[in-house]
Amino acid sequence: MIVRRGSEIKSSEITSKDAFLRYAQTRRGFLAGAAALGVSAFVGGTRMFADDKLKTVPSAYAVNETETPLKKATTFNNFYEFGTDKGDPSQNAHTLHTRPWTIELTGLVKKPQTVGVDDLMAYRPIENRVYRHRCVEAWSMVIPWDGYSLAELINFAQPLPSAKYVQFISKLDRKQMPELPGGFDWPYSEGLRMDEAMNPLTLLCFGCYGETLPNQNGAPVRVVIPWKYGFKSAKSIVKINFTDKQPKTLWNESNSGEYGFYSNVNPQVNHPRWSQGHERRIDTSLLPHTIPTLMFNGYGDQVASMYNGMDLKKNY
Ligand SMILES: Nc1nc2c(c(=O)[nH]1)N[C@H]1C(S)=C(S)[C@@H](COP(=O)(O)O)O[C@H]1N2
Ligand SMILES: [Mo]
Questions:
Q1: How would you classify residue 111: left for phi > 0, otherwise alpha for psi between -120 and 50, otherwise beta?
Q2: pLDDT at 33
Q3: Is any ligand 1 atom within 6 A of the Cβ of residue 79?
Q4: What is the predicted pLDDT for the residue at 52?
Q5: CB under 8 Å, gap of 24 or more: what pairs does 297-301 form?
């Protein structure tokens, strides 16, 4: 189900504080109205689609490949906090409360502060970006994400010159996550080197397919780093921490022999248990079942220079 927002606000307007307040009021009014009318974004008890249409602007970042059907991208997920099977998050993540929601900007910044997700969403125009999405498990999708460059938020946060890395911490709430599996060092955490985080491709993401993120895809805010394996793209972020040392990340801590800090998509460096040379494009019958994996997931032009002189077999 697609529910349209009542008003039309030009994206060029939503950068000013004034316009943001109008935008936020309209959004609240719309959601209250939708609730009063009994409009529901739940299908059979499972939240299948987000309920808030986003006003987006086009962007130069769009791969010319068949998009993964929305239904597939929102029912075949990795979000271990809500269960480890691909179908678990879309069944279980409706228990996640996504409002109120704040993001803490902390560590080596000029002034640590906490920002509300709606303010963050209105801070810059939301761009529509169609990215390849390659999981370390050797499947892939093509997803239209909605957001703006993480660099915008980093500039806002004003990291100190000593900040060399950015760490992302996901929400942890055992009540809202009754399926949380043992054996991991929760909360989910990920990290990037500062230049990777500042790369214009790195997306601070609020939506997909033109609507706010469904819970199972990481509502209300996640990152998307399209040249790295999917697990680098932390979901449902509550804290962004600036550090001078390579931060700890959940998958690297849990099995450093299989999941490195860099985790750039690389068909020449196999996972110890399977080849990374090919991938299975989920549910795109027009393409061969198995397609060759591209170096940096096809984003080499924009990112390869960041790794000049680095041994990518060692720094996997
Ligand atoms: N907090 C959190 N973020 C996460 C994960 C997770 O389990 N928890 N899984 C990662 C993995 S392995 C992948 S492939 C992508 C999946 O994103 P999608 O379900 O939106 O396709 O999210 C990543 N971000
Ligand atoms: Mo993944």
A1: beta
A2: 33
A3: yes
A4: 84
A5: 297/132, 297/134, 297/226, 297/227, 297/228, 297/265, 298/63, 298/132, 298/227, 299/132, 299/201, 299/226, 299/227, 300/227
Which H helix or E strand runs over 277?
none
Residues for the chain: how many in total? 316
The H or E element that residue 131 is part of is strand 126-134
* Cα–Cα nearest to 93, from 233, 219, 205, 250: 219
| Annotated domain spans of the chain | 11-307
CATH number for the domain formed by residue range(s) 11-307: 3.90.420.10
Nearest ligand to residue 82 Cα: 1
- The torsion angle over the Cα atoms of residues 151, 306, 170 and 208, rounded to 10 degrees, is 60
DSSP 87-114: THHHHHGGG---SS-EEEEEESBSS-EE
Q: Which two tokens stand for residue 229?
A: 């394996």
pLDDT the model gives residue 42 = 32
For residue 234 and ligand 1, the question of a CB distance below 6 A is answered with yes
pLDDT of residue 114: 98
> Which residues of the chain are under the pLDDT cut of 50?
1-48
* Ligand 1 site, residue 77, Cβ cutoff 6 A: yes
Q: Which of 86, 227, 233, 276, when mutated, tests ligand 1's pocket best, judged by the most ligand atoms within 8 Å of its CB?
A: 233
Pocket test for ligand 1, best of 71, 79, 131, 213 (most atoms within 8 A of CB): 79
Give me ligand 2 centre to Cα 193, in Å: 20
Residue 294: beta bridge partners? none
